[in-house]
């Protein structure tokens, strides 16, 4: 077996295990740490797919910024360990129904998926590289890219204006 294939299987097992531990873990801090591990293993999958930029963005944005924010909020809330059972039977039944429905949908989508065969004559190993992504963004998707940047600028100015405190103004 090829080493890349065995590494893929190892990463897949680790991704599924850490994702299950996110859901199963009772401690919210442990759950966030398992989620960070899940993001790192997904970045490993991106690297195997030759999408280095996507892997770096996934680590920087999700595993870095957003998970630090989640961890900060969880620690800020200072949740105490309650030994009483807070989940009712109705909640457990609803969670089982929703989880089963998601499983059936995913299984149905998997059955309809057609995986193309590998053709070495038409294979392009430079698909996920940063240079090709830049050419695609600035050539084919220039208008949506610029509109998104203007939208982010307006949102940033709006957040500053909402957060700005006037002299004598009271915040409730």
Written overview of the protein:
Keywords: Cell membrane, Membrane, NAD, Quinone, Transmembrane, Transmembrane helix. It contains 6 helices and no strands. It is mainly alpha-helical. Among the domains are: 79 residues, NADH-ubiquinone/plastoquinone oxidoreductase chain 6, subunit NuoJ (Four Helix Bundle (Hemerythrin (Met), subunit A), Up-down Bundle), CATH 1.20.120; 38 residues. The longest helix is centred in the middle third of the chain and has 26 residues. The chain is extended and about 70 Å long.
Supply database-style keywords:
extended, mainly alpha, 0% strand, 6 helices, Four Helix Bundle (Hemerythrin (Met), subunit A), 172 residues, 73% helix
Number of β-strand runs: 0
**N-to-C SSE string, H for helix and E for strand:** HHHHHH
Write down the CATH topology of one domain. Answer: Four Helix Bundle (Hemerythrin (Met), subunit A)
Radius of gyration: 22 Å
Subcellular location: Cell membrane
Pfam families: Oxidored_q3
Protein name: NADH-quinone oxidoreductase subunit J
GO molecular function: NADH dehydrogenase (ubiquinone) activity; quinone binding
Short recap of the structure:
The chain is mostly helical and 172 residues long. Among the domains are: 1-79, Four Helix Bundle (Hemerythrin (Met), subunit A) (Up-down Bundle), CATH 1.20.120.1200; 129-166.
